[in-house]
UniProtKB/TrEMBL annotation:
Organism: Qipengyuania gaetbuli
Keyword Membrane among record annotations: yes
Top-level division of the source organism's lineage: Bacteria
Key words, A-Z: Membrane, Transmembrane, Transmembrane helix
Protein name as catalogued: DUF3137 domain-containing protein
Transmembrane segments: 37-55, 61-77
């Protein structure tokens, strides 16, 4: 297993010193945001008064104009706070990544794991995507990559057009010591449905035909439909400990409706949860707790992934234990 950094030790070293230096930056960001709110007020209130004198009522302006204008104004006032929190978050996560022998990048592009997730229909259809918080390198001896993805779909038309979040969560990829003989996809229950209901018996993705595997765990059956090109290999994935580890990885993100792909020598997981590793705060008193929480989240996820690797290796070396 990986030796994870101690939060107190990090805070007592260079990271703690750097965060102390960010106190002024955060205080100035709060002041700047408050000043922007005040500036908008002293401009807007007299303007509304003048319009009222000349017979124009604020109620004559369409609601959507007020909504758009208000949203833009609020975003402008809060930008200094956002930038300060991002700077603190990046500093904390970079320090944690360095202690783990990983690289961290706040602003990032998509990844091969994301493209695989999309190709195997592990993600909902979307019209735009954004990515952040990429951790990359090796977890123990295994190639490891993790980043967050935010996918949105455009709905409505004209004045009613809006962007709706269809996925916000994590894309995880980890290399396995033992390669997989086939391709196995764990999809959320009912993800591939027949026209009149019920799960499809066969699906075709990326030119590959995958047949539905029979389940052996009632708990797992309520969560996933399993499709594979290798039914024997798919069955050992239903091992109770394997199921427990997969569900714990999903739980680490507070996730739901996750999808998992095993192919070649890699596992790819798309977890529809929420933001993780949000270690940036404007309150310096929260720094220690946020460092500790970020380490805990990462450790829970990485340990589960490494345990899956170990179980896979044990199954390959002792094939008689397969279910």
């Amino acid at each position: 297993m990986i030796e994870y950094p101690d939060a107190d030790r990090l805070m007592a070293g260079e990271l703690g010193e750097w965060l102390d230096g960010q106190r002024t930056t955060r205080r100035l960001a709060i002041e700047k945001s408050n000043n922007r709110i005040f500036n908008i007020a002293i401009v807007l209130l007299p303007l509304l008064g003048v319009l009222w004198v000349f017979g124009f009522s604020p109620f004559d302006i369409p609601i959507f104009v007020w909504v758009v204008a208000g949203g833009l104004a609020w975003a402008w006032t809060q930008k200094p706070k956002f930038d300060a929190k991002k700077q603190v978050k990046s500093g904390i996560n970079e320090a944690i990544a360095k202690s783990l022998g990983l690289e961290y990048c706040h602003d990032c592009e998509g990844s091969e794991a994301f493209e695989q997730s999309r190709a195997f229909h592990m993600l909902p259809s979307h019209d735009r995507s954004s990515f952040e918080d990429m951790w990359s390198g090796h977890a123990g001896p295994h190639p490891f990559l993790l980043h967050e993805a935010h996918l949105e779909e455009r709905r409505g038309s004209g004045k009613n057009q809006r962007w709706v979040t269809v996925f916000r969560g994590a894309i995880l990829s980890i290399g396995f010591e033992e390669r997989f003989h086939g391709t196995t996809l764990l999809a959320p229950d009912g993800h591939f449905s027949k026209f009149f209901g019920g799960a499809k018996d066969t699906i075709k993705v990326e030119g590959t035909i995958l047949d539905r595997a029979q389940m052996v765990s009632p708990e797992f059956e309520d969560r996933y439909d399993v499709y594979s090109t290798d039914q024997t290999e798919a069955r050992w994935m239903m091992h109770p400990e394997y199921i427990e580890r997969l569900l714990s990885m999903e739980s680490a993100f507070g996730g739901r409706d996750s999808s998992v792909l095993f192919t070649g020598g890699t596992m790819v997981m798309a977890i529809n949860g929420g933001d993780m590793f949000e270690s940036g705060s404007l309150d310096h008193h929260e720094d220690g707790h946020l460092v500790s929480e970020t380490i805990r989240q990462f450790a829970q996820l990485a340990d589960a992934a490494l345990a899956l690797n170990r179980i896979r290796s044990d199954q390959v070396r002792t094939p008689a234990t397969r279910l």
